[in-house]
Amino acid sequence: MKRVFVNEEWCLGCHLCEYYCAFANSGLADMARALKDRDIFPRIRVEDTGKVTYALSCRHCTDPLCVKSCISGALTKVPTGAVCIDKDKCVGCYTCILVCPYGAVTAGEHGAVQKCELCLENACGSPACVRGCPNRAIVYEER
Amino acid sequence: MKQYVIIGGGVASVGCIEGIRSVDKEGRIVVLSGEGRPVYCRPLISYFLQGKTDPEKMKYRPDEFYAENNCEVVYEKAAAIDPARKTVTLESGESIPYDSLCVATGSSPFVPAFEGLDTVENKYGFMTMDDALALDGAVGPDSDVLIVGAGLIGLKCAEGLCGRAKSITVCDIAPRVLSSILDGDCAALMQKSLEDHGVRFELSDSAERFNINTAYMKSGKVLRFDILVLAVGVRPNDSLVGEAGGACDRGIRVDTHMRTSLEDVYAAGDCARGYDASTGEDRVLAILPNAVMQGRCAGINMAGGDEVFDKAIPMNAIGFFGLHALTAGSYAGELHEVPAGEGVKRLYVNGGLLSGFILIGDAAGAGVYTAMIREKTPVDSVDFGLLRTSPSMAAFSAQYRRKTLGEVV
Fold first, then answer.
1. Does A110 or B290 have the greater pLDDT score?
2. What confidence tens digit (pLDDT) does each residue in B249-260 have?
3. Do the chains contact at B317 and A97, CB–CB below 8 Å?
4. What is the reported pLDDT for B331?
5. B294: which residues sit within 8 A by CB, 6+ positions away?
6. What pLDDT shows up at residue A123?
7. Cα nearest neighbour of A111 on chain B
8. Residue B122's pLDDT is what?
9. How many structural domains compose chain B?
């Protein structure tokens, strides 16, 4: 399956991926309405220490600990291999946050947790972060 | 064709079915479930009381799960295992042969022999959907509720009933809440989050005797109640294996393949006493993720695979009214107290390894710490100064990041 991969040395730390992610998952057509003057909840996050900068999102692990640990059955590995979340089932217990080795599952806006679903569940169809990255520091491909 | 029998219909049983089917698509699987309903998310029963979920959403697997995995589910309890004849006898007397057996019988509430408990009519446990449905039907705006036990089960019950009863009081013989996973001031924070919502506590105190609607406490206090919830603790259901001659020690003893001491008999979940990677000792780790992973390991091995599960550690995510406490490992060694605003962040380092942590409030990145405990990552192999404040991949080597962010993991 295609996944999002990170080329750390090319990351500018511009955070554009976060904005594209939040916009793609907002369900809104107008970028300003989705992002301007609002707290955004992107599923990809730029981690920047001053020395190192890279974007981090769900690795869609082959054997995902979050799925095996989910107490509500909300996290599943769908047949394509993507790890997806059913927000109606999630009760926001944070067990997935407790087990994800990469810190890729985060608290969401409305109680349920959130994670990258490769933009397969929204209108975008392929990862918006990748399309918006100005330096190909994040790519969507088969490896 | 091989015949697999699984005693129990909970999440360890599901893990076992999925483990078997990852190796053997053909063999016959018989699931014995004593609960009369397909698998559901037991830890969600408090969210059900709160109205945050419903029986439909609480399904752990889709309705087609058993059919798709070609399982026959028998809603009946097992009465005995005969390891010599390799059969399981049901309570009805019927006998089912097995080539390979998994015992996933879970645990049962432990009810101390309180004097006069038999005079209490409205008493409930809080472990199963039936318990939750019974409480849901019994509680009303005029109810005074007394919960005995301030552990994970008792407190989630208190949260679930908040706003649905006239009063909720929780008592425990321990001096603090959640005494199995939290130390004093952390426990006080979690207690306050419930007190702020009207829950009252009677700690360092226990019931001496009951009489119909009244608890007479050791302290001399007299507590009147309409509904009594007993959440004192749980005991592993290990008697089927014990009576068949298998090794038990407050839990069915299993190795890292989930094998019991009986040939072709495996055990998984809350009934099993297995390896705890955080201490190197055996213990019952009665948490859902462990049950699923043990079940899966057992299933793979039952079907002829060679799977080891030696990464179990104690860990818990529990929250009340939006305040989350995430804990893992053991609190041994040197304490690193990290400022965390209104919350708490405690990391414990022992013998060059992260041995455990307590996070209250900000949960972000907790899994990075949990992974270090599980994988025994030496503290000196990471930028621990950075990791203390921010659990992120940035504290690891560029090589590790290339592997985890640039390859399939």
1. B290
2. 999 999 999 999
3. yes
4. 94
5. B12, B15, B254, B258, B268, B269, B272, B274, B309, B312
6. 82
7. B322
8. 96
9. 3
ipTM of this model? 0.97
Residues B181 and B271 in one domain: no
The residue behind tokens 């560029």 is B398
Q: In the numeric block, which tokens belong to residue A64?
A: 């995902």
Assign 3-class secondary structure to chain A: CCEEEECHHHCCCCCHHHHHHHHHCCCCCCHHHHHCCCCCCCCCEEEECCCCEEEECCCCCCCCHHHHHCCCCCEEECCCCCEEECCCCCCCCCHHHHHCCCCCCEECCCCCEECCCCCCCCCCCCCHHHHHCCCCCEEEECC
Mean pLDDT of chain A: 95
* Whole-number pLDDT of residue A110: 87
In which band, very low, low, confident or very high, does the pLDDT at A125 lie, cut at 50, 70 and 90? confident
Question: A5, A17, A71: best mutation site toward chain B, by most B Cβ within 10 Å?
Answer: A71
Q: Which residues of A touch B14 (CB under 8 A)?
A: none
* CATH level 3 topology of A1-57+117-143: Alpha-Beta Plaits (3.30.70)
Q: What is the CATH number of domain A61-115?
A: 3.30.70.20
Given this chain, do its domains A1-57+117-143 and A61-115 carry the same CATH topology? Answer: yes
Give yes or no: residues B76 and B102 share one domain: yes
Residues B334 and B297 in one domain: no
Q: Which portions of chain B are predicted below pLDDT 50?
A: none
